[in-house]
Amino acid sequence: MIRPIYSLMLLGAQPLLRRKLRRRGVQEPGYLEHVDERFGRYQGSTGPGRLWIHAVSLGETRAAAILITALRAERPDVRLLLTHGTATGRAEGAKLLREGDAQAWLPWDTPKAVRGFLNHWKPAVGVLMETEVWPNLIALCREQGVPLALANARLSEKSLRGARRLPRLSRPAYGGLRAVWAQTETDARRLAQAGATVQGVFGNLKFDAAPAPEQLERGRGWRALQDRPVVMFASSREGEEAGFLQAARSQAGVQWLLVPRHPQRFDEVAALAAQAGFRVSRRSGWGELPASADVWIGDSLGEMALYYAMADVALLGGSFAPLGGQNLIEAAACDCPVVMGPHTFNFNEAAQLAQQAGAALRVSSIDEGVREAVALAREPGRREVAVEACEAFSSAHRGAALKTARAVLGLLERPVLEA
Protein backbone atom coordinates (compact mmCIF):
# COMPACT_ATOMS: atom_id res chain seq x y z
CA MET A 1 0.00 0.00 0.00
CA ILE A 2 2.93 2.33 0.66
CA ARG A 3 4.18 2.49 -2.94
CA PRO A 4 0.89 3.94 -4.33
CA ILE A 5 1.09 6.69 -1.69
CA TYR A 6 4.72 7.34 -2.66
CA SER A 7 3.66 7.51 -6.32
CA LEU A 8 0.88 10.01 -5.58
CA MET A 9 3.34 12.21 -3.70
CA LEU A 10 5.74 12.18 -6.65
CA LEU A 11 2.93 12.94 -9.04
CA GLY A 12 1.93 15.94 -6.95
CA ALA A 13 5.53 17.15 -6.89
CA GLN A 14 5.89 17.24 -10.68
CA PRO A 15 5.21 21.00 -10.96
CA LEU A 16 8.01 21.56 -8.43
CA LEU A 17 10.32 19.40 -10.54
CA ARG A 18 9.57 21.46 -13.64
CA ARG A 19 10.25 24.64 -11.70
CA LYS A 20 13.53 23.23 -10.41
CA LEU A 21 14.62 22.28 -13.93
CA ARG A 22 13.88 25.80 -15.18
CA ARG A 23 15.86 27.29 -12.30
CA ARG A 24 18.85 24.97 -12.82
CA GLY A 25 18.66 25.61 -16.55
CA VAL A 26 19.52 29.28 -16.09
CA GLN A 27 23.11 28.33 -15.27
CA GLU A 28 23.22 24.89 -16.91
CA PRO A 29 21.21 24.90 -20.17
CA GLY A 30 21.43 21.12 -20.39
CA TYR A 31 18.59 20.90 -17.88
CA LEU A 32 16.28 22.56 -20.41
CA GLU A 33 16.90 19.95 -23.10
CA HIS A 34 14.58 16.96 -23.69
CA VAL A 35 12.47 17.83 -20.63
CA ASP A 36 9.64 15.51 -21.73
CA GLU A 37 11.94 12.55 -21.19
CA ARG A 38 11.85 13.28 -17.46
CA PHE A 39 8.14 12.38 -17.61
CA GLY A 40 8.44 9.24 -19.72
CA ARG A 41 7.90 10.71 -23.17
CA TYR A 42 10.60 9.84 -25.71
CA GLN A 43 10.98 10.62 -29.40
CA GLY A 44 12.08 8.50 -32.34
CA SER A 45 12.13 4.77 -32.95
CA THR A 46 14.43 2.38 -31.18
CA GLY A 47 15.13 -1.31 -31.30
CA PRO A 48 14.98 -3.50 -28.18
CA GLY A 49 17.87 -5.28 -26.55
CA ARG A 50 20.26 -2.55 -25.44
CA LEU A 51 22.25 -2.83 -22.23
CA TRP A 52 20.98 0.07 -20.14
CA ILE A 53 23.35 1.80 -17.69
CA HIS A 54 22.08 4.56 -15.40
CA ALA A 55 24.70 7.00 -14.08
CA VAL A 56 22.95 9.86 -12.33
CA SER A 57 25.72 12.46 -12.19
CA LEU A 58 29.32 13.18 -13.12
CA GLY A 59 31.02 10.85 -10.64
CA GLU A 60 28.77 7.91 -11.47
CA THR A 61 29.24 8.55 -15.20
CA ARG A 62 32.99 8.40 -14.80
CA ALA A 63 32.63 5.11 -12.95
CA ALA A 64 30.31 3.90 -15.73
CA ALA A 65 32.98 4.83 -18.30
CA ILE A 66 35.40 2.43 -16.61
CA LEU A 67 32.78 -0.33 -16.68
CA ILE A 68 31.91 0.41 -20.32
CA THR A 69 35.55 0.09 -21.35
CA ALA A 70 35.70 -3.33 -19.70
CA LEU A 71 32.37 -4.38 -21.24
CA ARG A 72 33.52 -3.45 -24.75
CA ALA A 73 36.79 -5.30 -24.23
CA GLU A 74 34.78 -8.42 -23.41
CA ARG A 75 32.01 -7.87 -25.96
CA PRO A 76 32.79 -5.23 -28.64
CA ASP A 77 29.33 -5.38 -30.23
CA VAL A 78 27.40 -4.43 -27.08
CA ARG A 79 24.82 -1.67 -27.69
CA LEU A 80 24.26 0.75 -24.83
CA LEU A 81 21.54 3.00 -23.51
CA LEU A 82 22.94 5.58 -21.06
CA THR A 83 20.61 7.47 -18.75
CA HIS A 84 21.38 10.31 -16.37
CA GLY A 85 19.83 12.72 -13.88
CA THR A 86 22.14 15.75 -14.11
CA ALA A 87 23.35 17.93 -16.96
CA THR A 88 27.02 17.30 -16.14
CA GLY A 89 26.42 13.55 -16.11
CA ARG A 90 24.68 13.65 -19.48
CA ALA A 91 27.39 15.82 -21.04
CA GLU A 92 30.09 13.44 -19.83
CA GLY A 93 28.08 10.42 -20.95
CA ALA A 94 27.77 11.77 -24.48
CA LYS A 95 31.53 11.25 -24.86
CA LEU A 96 31.07 7.52 -24.30
CA LEU A 97 28.56 6.89 -27.09
CA ARG A 98 29.33 4.87 -30.20
CA GLU A 99 27.26 4.10 -33.26
CA GLY A 100 24.18 2.16 -32.19
CA ASP A 101 24.19 3.57 -28.65
CA ALA A 102 21.57 5.95 -27.24
CA GLN A 103 21.22 8.42 -24.40
CA ALA A 104 18.26 9.79 -22.42
CA TRP A 105 17.13 11.17 -19.09
CA LEU A 106 15.92 8.63 -16.56
CA PRO A 107 12.28 9.56 -15.89
CA TRP A 108 10.78 10.81 -12.65
CA ASP A 109 9.87 7.72 -10.59
CA THR A 110 6.13 7.64 -11.24
CA PRO A 111 4.51 4.49 -12.66
CA LYS A 112 3.37 6.22 -15.86
CA ALA A 113 6.77 7.76 -16.58
CA VAL A 114 8.65 4.54 -15.85
CA ARG A 115 6.31 2.53 -18.07
CA GLY A 116 6.84 5.08 -20.84
CA PHE A 117 10.59 4.63 -20.48
CA LEU A 118 10.50 0.81 -20.48
CA ASN A 119 7.95 0.56 -23.30
CA HIS A 120 9.99 2.89 -25.51
CA TRP A 121 13.49 1.54 -24.94
CA LYS A 122 12.78 -2.13 -24.10
CA PRO A 123 16.21 -2.69 -22.50
CA ALA A 124 17.52 -6.23 -22.13
CA VAL A 125 19.24 -5.58 -18.80
CA GLY A 126 19.59 -2.53 -16.56
CA VAL A 127 22.57 -1.52 -14.44
CA LEU A 128 22.19 1.21 -11.81
CA MET A 129 25.44 2.79 -10.68
CA GLU A 130 26.31 3.06 -6.98
CA THR A 131 23.24 4.27 -5.05
CA GLU A 132 20.31 4.75 -7.44
CA VAL A 133 17.45 2.74 -5.91
CA TRP A 134 13.98 3.87 -7.08
CA PRO A 135 10.93 1.88 -5.88
CA ASN A 136 8.71 2.19 -8.97
CA LEU A 137 11.58 1.70 -11.39
CA ILE A 138 12.63 -1.52 -9.70
CA ALA A 139 9.08 -2.83 -9.30
CA LEU A 140 8.16 -2.20 -12.95
CA CYS A 141 11.42 -3.66 -14.26
CA ARG A 142 10.62 -6.78 -12.28
CA GLU A 143 7.05 -6.78 -13.62
CA GLN A 144 8.27 -6.49 -17.22
CA GLY A 145 11.08 -9.03 -16.84
CA VAL A 146 14.00 -6.59 -17.12
CA PRO A 147 16.84 -7.82 -14.88
CA LEU A 148 18.12 -4.87 -12.87
CA ALA A 149 21.47 -4.78 -11.06
CA LEU A 150 23.16 -2.31 -8.72
CA ALA A 151 26.86 -2.04 -9.60
CA ASN A 152 29.71 -0.42 -7.69
CA ALA A 153 27.12 -0.37 -4.93
CA ARG A 154 27.60 1.58 -1.75
CA LEU A 155 25.33 2.49 1.15
CA SER A 156 26.30 4.85 3.95
CA GLU A 157 25.14 4.43 7.53
CA LYS A 158 23.04 7.58 7.12
CA SER A 159 21.32 6.19 4.01
CA LEU A 160 20.70 2.89 5.77
CA ARG A 161 18.98 4.73 8.61
CA GLY A 162 16.81 6.51 6.03
CA ALA A 163 15.87 3.20 4.41
CA ARG A 164 14.96 1.73 7.78
CA ARG A 165 12.55 4.57 8.45
CA LEU A 166 10.40 3.41 5.50
CA PRO A 167 10.95 -0.36 5.39
CA ARG A 168 7.72 -1.15 3.50
CA LEU A 169 8.97 1.04 0.65
CA SER A 170 12.71 0.44 0.77
CA ARG A 171 12.92 -3.31 1.44
CA PRO A 172 10.89 -4.34 -1.64
CA ALA A 173 13.01 -1.94 -3.70
CA TYR A 174 16.33 -3.35 -2.56
CA GLY A 175 14.93 -6.87 -2.61
CA GLY A 176 13.68 -6.41 -6.18
CA LEU A 177 17.18 -6.00 -7.60
CA ARG A 178 18.33 -9.04 -9.56
CA ALA A 179 21.97 -8.55 -8.54
CA VAL A 180 23.99 -6.28 -6.24
CA TRP A 181 27.79 -6.00 -6.45
CA ALA A 182 29.13 -4.02 -3.51
CA GLN A 183 32.28 -1.94 -3.25
CA THR A 184 33.23 -3.12 0.24
CA GLU A 185 32.25 -5.69 2.87
CA THR A 186 30.81 -2.85 4.94
CA ASP A 187 28.64 -1.73 2.02
CA ALA A 188 27.57 -5.35 1.48
CA ARG A 189 26.49 -5.68 5.11
CA ARG A 190 24.47 -2.47 5.00
CA LEU A 191 22.87 -3.35 1.67
CA ALA A 192 21.83 -6.74 3.06
CA GLN A 193 20.32 -5.02 6.09
CA ALA A 194 18.35 -2.80 3.70
CA GLY A 195 16.91 -5.91 2.01
CA ALA A 196 19.26 -6.51 -0.93
CA THR A 197 20.72 -9.85 -1.96
CA VAL A 198 24.42 -9.17 -2.48
CA GLN A 199 26.09 -11.48 -5.02
CA GLY A 200 29.63 -10.19 -4.64
CA VAL A 201 32.06 -7.65 -3.24
CA PHE A 202 34.07 -6.53 -6.26
CA GLY A 203 35.78 -3.36 -5.01
CA ASN A 204 35.49 0.16 -6.38
CA LEU A 205 35.48 0.62 -10.15
CA LYS A 206 37.25 3.96 -9.79
CA PHE A 207 40.49 2.22 -8.87
CA ASP A 208 40.60 0.92 -12.45
CA ALA A 209 40.52 4.40 -13.97
CA ALA A 210 43.68 5.35 -15.87
CA PRO A 211 44.39 9.11 -15.74
CA ALA A 212 44.76 10.67 -19.17
CA PRO A 213 48.50 10.54 -19.97
CA GLU A 214 48.43 13.82 -21.88
CA GLN A 215 46.85 15.57 -18.88
CA LEU A 216 49.46 14.16 -16.51
CA GLU A 217 52.26 15.22 -18.81
CA ARG A 218 50.95 18.75 -19.23
CA GLY A 219 50.18 19.18 -15.54
CA ARG A 220 53.60 17.99 -14.43
CA GLY A 221 55.21 20.23 -17.02
CA TRP A 222 53.32 23.23 -15.68
CA ARG A 223 54.22 22.27 -12.11
CA ALA A 224 57.92 22.15 -13.03
CA LEU A 225 57.76 25.79 -14.06
CA GLN A 226 56.67 26.92 -10.59
CA ASP A 227 59.19 28.06 -7.98
CA ARG A 228 56.81 27.62 -5.05
CA PRO A 229 54.71 24.72 -3.75
CA VAL A 230 51.29 24.16 -5.33
CA VAL A 231 48.44 23.26 -2.96
CA MET A 232 45.08 22.32 -4.45
CA PHE A 233 41.58 22.35 -2.95
CA ALA A 234 39.95 19.58 -5.00
CA SER A 235 36.19 19.44 -5.62
CA SER A 236 35.44 22.13 -3.06
CA ARG A 237 31.85 22.55 -1.97
CA GLU A 238 29.73 25.53 -1.01
CA GLY A 239 30.53 26.69 2.52
CA GLU A 240 34.11 25.38 2.42
CA GLU A 241 35.92 27.88 0.20
CA ALA A 242 35.58 30.89 2.53
CA GLY A 243 37.38 29.05 5.34
CA PHE A 244 40.01 27.78 2.94
CA LEU A 245 40.73 31.27 1.60
CA GLN A 246 40.92 32.72 5.10
CA ALA A 247 43.42 30.04 6.15
CA ALA A 248 45.39 30.50 2.94
CA ARG A 249 45.96 34.19 3.73
CA SER A 250 48.27 33.23 6.62
CA GLN A 251 50.52 31.08 4.38
CA ALA A 252 53.00 33.02 2.26
CA GLY A 253 54.83 31.70 -0.78
CA VAL A 254 52.23 29.15 -1.90
CA GLN A 255 50.52 28.78 -5.26
CA TRP A 256 46.87 27.94 -4.59
CA LEU A 257 44.74 25.91 -7.00
CA LEU A 258 41.00 25.89 -6.28
CA VAL A 259 38.75 23.51 -8.24
CA PRO A 260 35.02 23.75 -7.32
CA ARG A 261 32.96 20.56 -7.45
CA HIS A 262 30.03 22.09 -9.35
CA PRO A 263 30.51 24.05 -12.58
CA GLN A 264 27.60 26.38 -11.89
CA ARG A 265 29.68 27.80 -9.01
CA PHE A 266 32.83 28.67 -11.01
CA ASP A 267 31.95 32.38 -11.23
CA GLU A 268 30.90 32.54 -7.58
CA VAL A 269 34.12 30.94 -6.32
CA ALA A 270 36.34 33.11 -8.52
CA ALA A 271 34.57 36.20 -7.16
CA LEU A 272 34.93 34.91 -3.60
CA ALA A 273 38.71 34.53 -4.04
CA ALA A 274 39.00 38.02 -5.53
CA GLN A 275 36.96 39.51 -2.69
CA ALA A 276 39.35 37.84 -0.23
CA GLY A 277 42.17 39.90 -1.74
CA PHE A 278 43.81 37.29 -3.97
CA ARG A 279 44.89 37.80 -7.56
CA VAL A 280 42.83 35.26 -9.50
CA SER A 281 43.41 33.47 -12.80
CA ARG A 282 40.97 30.99 -14.35
CA ARG A 283 41.92 27.93 -16.36
CA SER A 284 39.45 28.94 -19.06
CA GLY A 285 41.52 32.04 -19.75
CA TRP A 286 44.93 30.37 -20.02
CA GLY A 287 46.88 29.95 -23.21
CA GLU A 288 49.89 27.65 -23.42
CA LEU A 289 50.85 28.35 -19.80
CA PRO A 290 49.03 29.19 -16.55
CA ALA A 291 48.75 32.91 -15.93
CA SER A 292 50.45 34.47 -12.93
CA ALA A 293 48.11 34.70 -9.92
CA ASP A 294 47.80 33.93 -6.21
CA VAL A 295 44.88 31.58 -6.82
CA TRP A 296 44.24 29.54 -9.92
CA ILE A 297 40.60 28.55 -10.46
CA GLY A 298 40.12 25.20 -12.19
CA ASP A 299 36.98 26.10 -14.13
CA SER A 300 36.96 23.25 -16.64
CA LEU A 301 35.35 19.81 -16.78
CA GLY A 302 37.18 16.55 -17.38
CA GLU A 303 40.60 17.83 -16.36
CA MET A 304 41.01 16.62 -12.79
CA ALA A 305 44.08 14.58 -13.77
CA LEU A 306 45.68 17.78 -15.08
CA TYR A 307 44.97 19.59 -11.83
CA TYR A 308 46.21 16.77 -9.62
CA ALA A 309 49.39 16.56 -11.70
CA MET A 310 49.95 20.29 -11.16
CA ALA A 311 49.59 19.97 -7.38
CA ASP A 312 52.01 18.80 -4.71
CA VAL A 313 49.18 18.09 -2.26
CA ALA A 314 45.36 18.23 -2.48
CA LEU A 315 42.80 19.08 0.17
CA LEU A 316 39.69 16.92 -0.24
CA GLY A 317 36.50 18.86 -0.91
CA GLY A 318 33.29 17.91 0.83
CA SER A 319 35.22 16.60 3.85
CA PHE A 320 35.56 19.89 5.75
CA ALA A 321 31.80 20.42 5.95
CA PRO A 322 29.39 17.59 6.84
CA LEU A 323 28.92 16.60 3.19
CA GLY A 324 30.57 13.17 3.13
CA GLY A 325 33.67 13.97 1.10
CA GLN A 326 34.54 13.41 -2.54
CA ASN A 327 36.36 10.64 -4.35
CA LEU A 328 40.06 10.56 -3.37
CA ILE A 329 40.90 7.58 -5.59
CA GLU A 330 41.61 9.75 -8.62
CA ALA A 331 44.07 11.84 -6.63
CA ALA A 332 45.98 8.72 -5.59
CA ALA A 333 46.02 7.45 -9.18
CA CYS A 334 47.69 10.75 -10.16
CA ASP A 335 50.27 10.37 -7.35
CA CYS A 336 48.86 13.36 -5.45
CA PRO A 337 48.72 12.92 -1.64
CA VAL A 338 45.50 14.05 0.03
CA VAL A 339 44.69 15.93 3.22
CA MET A 340 41.09 15.24 4.23
CA GLY A 341 38.77 16.64 6.85
CA PRO A 342 36.61 14.76 9.37
CA HIS A 343 33.60 14.14 7.08
CA THR A 344 34.21 11.28 4.63
CA PHE A 345 31.16 9.10 5.25
CA ASN A 346 30.34 8.79 1.53
CA PHE A 347 33.74 7.18 0.89
CA ASN A 348 34.57 6.01 4.38
CA GLU A 349 36.37 2.75 3.62
CA ALA A 350 38.44 4.21 0.76
CA ALA A 351 39.39 7.11 3.04
CA GLN A 352 40.42 4.77 5.86
CA LEU A 353 42.44 2.56 3.52
CA ALA A 354 44.18 5.58 2.00
CA GLN A 355 45.03 6.89 5.45
CA GLN A 356 46.37 3.49 6.55
CA ALA A 357 48.49 3.28 3.39
CA GLY A 358 49.96 6.74 3.95
CA ALA A 359 48.36 8.20 0.81
CA ALA A 360 46.06 10.46 2.83
CA LEU A 361 46.23 12.44 6.06
CA ARG A 362 43.24 13.16 8.32
CA VAL A 363 42.77 16.54 10.05
CA SER A 364 39.98 18.06 12.11
CA SER A 365 39.47 21.43 10.41
CA ILE A 366 40.19 23.44 7.27
CA ASP A 367 42.72 25.59 9.15
CA GLU A 368 44.65 22.51 10.22
CA GLY A 369 44.24 21.05 6.74
CA VAL A 370 45.81 24.07 5.05
CA ARG A 371 48.73 24.05 7.50
CA GLU A 372 49.36 20.33 7.04
CA ALA A 373 49.06 20.50 3.26
CA VAL A 374 51.56 23.35 3.05
CA ALA A 375 53.96 21.58 5.41
CA LEU A 376 53.80 18.39 3.35
CA ALA A 377 54.29 20.29 0.09
CA ARG A 378 57.39 21.97 1.54
CA GLU A 379 59.04 18.72 2.66
CA PRO A 380 60.22 16.85 -0.48
CA GLY A 381 61.34 13.72 1.35
CA ARG A 382 58.11 13.32 3.27
CA ARG A 383 56.06 14.05 0.17
CA GLU A 384 57.98 11.43 -1.85
CA VAL A 385 57.05 8.79 0.73
CA ALA A 386 53.39 9.84 0.37
CA VAL A 387 53.61 9.66 -3.44
CA GLU A 388 54.96 6.10 -3.22
CA ALA A 389 52.09 5.27 -0.87
CA CYS A 390 49.65 6.61 -3.48
CA GLU A 391 51.10 4.29 -6.10
CA ALA A 392 50.89 1.25 -3.80
CA PHE A 393 47.37 2.12 -2.64
CA SER A 394 46.09 2.45 -6.22
CA SER A 395 47.65 -0.75 -7.53
CA ALA A 396 46.47 -2.84 -4.57
CA HIS A 397 42.77 -2.22 -5.23
CA ARG A 398 42.38 -2.64 -8.98
CA GLY A 399 40.30 -5.36 -10.65
CA ALA A 400 36.65 -4.42 -10.04
CA ALA A 401 36.00 -3.46 -13.68
CA LEU A 402 36.60 -6.92 -15.16
CA LYS A 403 34.63 -8.68 -12.41
CA THR A 404 31.68 -6.32 -12.84
CA ALA A 405 31.74 -6.47 -16.64
CA ARG A 406 31.62 -10.26 -16.65
CA ALA A 407 28.79 -10.29 -14.10
CA VAL A 408 26.78 -7.80 -16.21
CA LEU A 409 27.33 -9.82 -19.37
CA GLY A 410 26.20 -12.89 -17.48
CA LEU A 411 22.84 -11.21 -16.91
CA LEU A 412 22.71 -10.01 -20.50
CA GLU A 413 23.23 -13.49 -21.88
CA ARG A 414 20.69 -15.31 -19.72
CA PRO A 415 18.06 -12.89 -18.37
CA VAL A 416 15.10 -15.18 -19.04
CA LEU A 417 16.58 -18.18 -17.22
CA GLU A 418 16.99 -16.15 -14.02
CA ALA A 419 13.63 -14.37 -14.13
From TrEMBL:
Protein name (Swiss-Prot/TrEMBL): 3-deoxy-D-manno-octulosonic acid transferase
SUPFAM superfamilies xref list: UDP-Glycosyltransferase/glycogen phosphorylase
The keyword Transcription regulation appears for this protein: no
Pfam families referenced in this protein's UniProt entry, alphabetically: Glycos_transf_N
Catalytically driven reaction(s): lipid IVA (E. coli) + CMP-3-deoxy-beta-D-manno-octulosonate = alpha-Kdo-(2->6)-lipid IVA (E. coli) + CMP + H(+)
UniProt source species: Ramlibacter agri
Gene3D superfamilies to which the protein is assigned, alphabetical: 3-Deoxy-D-manno-octulosonic-acid transferase, N-terminal domain, Glycogen Phosphorylase B
Cell compartment(s), UniProt: Cell membrane
Major subcellular location class: membrane
Origin superkingdom: Bacteria
InterPro entries, per database record: Glycos_transf_N, Glycos_transf_N_sf, Kdotransferase
Any one annotated GO CC term: plasma membrane
Molecular functions per Gene Ontology: Kdo transferase activity
Keyword terms of this UniProt record: Cell membrane, Lipopolysaccharide biosynthesis, Membrane, Transferase
EC class (word): transferase
Site feature (Transition state stabilizer) residues: E130, K206
